[in-house]
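Table S2 (continued). Query chain:
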Amino acid sequence: MTTDLFYLTLSAGLCAILWVPYVLSRIMTWGLINAVGYPDNPPELPAWARRATRVHENMVENLAPFAALVLVAQIAGTANETTAFAALLFFWARVAHAIVFTLGIPWLRTVTFVVAWVGIVLIFIEIIT
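Corresponding output:
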């Protein structure tokens, strides 16, 4: 497995577990029955859980272009050290983003988002040049 595909796999795994914290918060705040149902007026979740929900949504949105570009680079034969570094950059920036966003650290949240985006852009540039 190439480095690019390894970090794509880790990124997909990260996306697949990011729902856990906010769902556990729903269970703790709303109770199990309401958490698995559709309560009419559920209590508001803690701020960190609302942020964790947005972390997951944001990762879903960013995983699609990242995955598409990693796969195109593999198929087109343009994967190289730069795309491998970019994939590593994307993954670790997304891990950091999940942590700082959930904790509510605004400036670092933006920085980690941009760093991950740079990873996507680097792969795109390697494909088109």
